[in-house]
Every structure is written in C-alpha cells, then in structure tokens.
Fold:
Amino acid sequence: MPEPGQHLLLEIALDLASSLTNDDRFDRLLTALRKAIPCDAIALLAYRTPHAIPLAIQGLSPDTRGRRFAVGEHPRFAAMAEAQKPVRFPADSPLPDPYDGLLLNDDSAIPIHACMGLPLFVDSQLLGFLTFDSLTPGVFDHIGERTLDMVSALAAATLKAAIQLDALERQAQHNTQVMQTLTLDAMAQGGNSLLGDSLPMLALKQELALVAPSDFTVLVLGETGVGKELVARTLHAQSARKGAPLVHLNCAALPEQLIESELFGHTKGAFTGADSARPGKFLLADGGTLFLDEVGELSPGTQSKLLRALQSGEIQPVGQDKVRQVDVRVIAATNRDLKTEVAAGRFRADLYHRLSVYPILVPPLRERGGDILLLAGFFLENTRRKLGLAQLKLAQATQDLLMRYDWPGNVRELEHCISRAALNAIREQGRHGVLTLAPGHCALEPVSPAPLPTAPPPGTAQADLRLAVEDYQRQLIREALLANDHSWAGAARALNLDRANLQRLGKRLGVVVSKGL
Structure:
C-alpha cells in the first residue's frame, strides 16, 4: 500500500488549524486520516487514569463513545502505552481487541484482523491513543515508521491543543487561577463525571459549574432514576469543600423515630437501644456537604428541626442539652413536587424556601437524545467487566429500540436493561466470544412505531404544512446522523448540504445529538 505523502499530512494540519471547536477538529482529523490510511474503523481516545476514553470515533458502533476502557484490563491499550511508539498487532495476535464486534452496521461478530495503535505522548506524558482497525489482514504493514511518527505527533498536538483550549475556556468562565487547576483535575478524573453531551445535559453542566463554587443550598429535582445523587456528587467535587466529607442520608429509608438521631446524633442512653453515643450526619459532614436524598419524605416534626439547623447552623443531639455549631452545605433531592406538597400542607413552606435557594432540574433520559447510546456503551463496558466477558455489543435493532423507548425509569432503568440483556444473551450464546444483545434480550415493553404521515384534510392551514415539512426534515437529519456516528460533517455529506448550514437547520429544528469532548 502506498504511504500517505507529507503534502497530505500538511493538508491535514492546515485543515485542523481552520477548525473552531474540539468536535470539529477531532472529526476532521479522523476523516483526513482515513483518507491517508484506509481503514474500517478509527478512534481517538484520551487517557484519563486509569481509562482510555473515546473522544471521537468513525466506523464503530455509536455506543463505543460511552465506553470507558480500563487500560490495565485491555492488553492492547497496555501494550501501546508500554511501547511508547506505534504498535502493529499481527493478525494472529492472542491479545483480545477491545473493538471486536463493534464495527458499525456489522452484526456478524467477525474479529478484527488488522489493528494498529499509536500512543500519543507529549513531553513524556501519555495523553491518549489513536487506533486503526481493518478487516483486511496486513493492510497496515507497509506504512513507514516516519509516517506513523508524523501522524502520532499530529494527533498528539491536536489532543493537547484540545485539552488546553478546554482548560482556557473553563478558566475564562471562572476567571481565577484556582479554576484552571480544577479543570486539569477534572480532565484527569473525567471518567467519574456526568456522562452526556445532549443540549439538556450541557445546560445542566453549566448550571452545576455556576452554583458549585458557592455555599448555596441546592435542591435537585427530577424523576426517579435520572441521577440526582451523581449531580450532588458533582456539585461537591466542584466545590471548595471537595477535600471534606460528602455524607449521604436517604430520608425515606429510616423510620421517623430514628431519623432525628441519624441527622443530629444522640447521647448514650438517650433512648432504648442507645448503648453508646453516636454522631449524626450533620456532625460527620462538618466542613463538607450533606446530601439529603428523598427529602420530601421527612415528617413535619423532623422538618422543623432541619429548618433550625439550616437557619442557624446549630444542631442538638438527642438526649443532650448542649447545642453544637456546624459548618455544612446541604444539597437536597426529591422526585416529589414540593410546591404541591407545600400547598397540601405536607411540607413546610419555610423549609422549602430554605432548601430551594438554587433549584436544579435533572432532565429525564427521554429528552437526552443521543446520550442514550452513550450511556448504553458505558453500561455495556461495566457489565462486560463485571461478568468477565470478552465483548458485549448492541445489535442495530437493539440500538433503534433503545432510542425509541420512553425510559420511565430513566438512567437507572437503562443500566438494569443492559445488565438483564447481558444475562439473557449469556443464556443463549454462552460466555465466549462477542455477545450480541438482541431486542428480545432487553425485555422492554413493546414500543409502538410512529404513525405514518397522512394527507391533511382539505382546508388545512398553511402552518400545518410547514410543521409537516419540518418534521420530515428533522427525521432525515436524525437518520443521517445515526448512520454517520452522530457526525455533522458525515451527515452533511450524506445529505449533500454544507455542514454549517445543516447544523444551523438542526439547531432550529431542535435536533439533539451526542457530541463533544
């Protein structure tokens, strides 16, 4: 195979220099490299100890973006990192390939025959990986070392620039040197952050970044299973209290006679069974954050005592006359409509206002578009590791099902769905090789297909025609994005449109896709 010339690599560098966003840079880099080095799949991954995290993919199943590959558990990533130079794995390599069975639109579970990996180092620091995969054996064997070194340097520079730009954007947002340090920490710990790049999730992350540095009490609202506890953890991790404890109390899990003791502690002999003194959650969280989950379940008596603690910062353990002062930030969460509870007399209005200094609504999964497959990939990799499997993948029909399903149980239901489907697949296919999760493995309620458009009755207003046209445009754009790894550039080529024009049209139509760093 002829090597890509230096002029082509120069064109790639110039093209990247004209890109304005990290998404655009990554997409252009992979598109150009596929022209220079033909392959069936290519991926750019960031190394955030201990995981290799996909930032951009082409030719792989969309759920790959949500996976977090533990480098120590994937021998090929570990081999790349150890070699510190491009590695071409032989076709008969015994090392399992993390992408086996994940090629786009390929349900045959054929193992990948050619694999090449480039570790991306800058100043002796591993920033990430660039991987090439092909079903054609030996396709990468004739590429010169100098060419691979140039490609590695170009990709590493692109990734480093993206990390630096992300840090600078965060620094500008917070306008302090401290926040720059937090940004670098966040890059290193990205695997534990909120996962999702849909417009509702981007808006949520912006809200969290805004309120986290303050000491304001936050009320996290949302349906069951949307991830309210993870939001609380994110708020704590981005706050000045991150080095202090984050203490969690589920207010619905304890009987009323014990909740006061759990909150404020008790002395020895304060009540039957109190054989020793015990500190409460407020004292344990002193200097840090107290997360009160299901706060809407508190009894009226406990509500009044909680209000006192919020107002004065004072707590009084059960059985003790002495009052103690604590410094605690409270984050509360509930799936109840507390305004309705206040109107019905079941929740104190003054406590509600104390808790809802800054309310945050976590979006349900059904409103998060492409995040569904992103999260599915994350849960697939976790499940694969827990069950000791070689590979788990979603059939195309299963991807379509997950995207159409309404998810009344939200992210928690999706996680349980993936776990259930994996066990059902093991029962049918055994534990070896690539296991493909079919729609039947998910055991979800049937999803009714969207009704076909019908001809409007005579005399329908012109606005109805406009809405019908917009619905059709929206459908075409979503299908093109799904077929092109959620890439705006790929969808634009498929629809024969300018990418910028397509993005503007998609924004106006409210089309939400998974993208971003």
The chain has 19 helices and 15 strands. The radius of gyration is 26 Å.
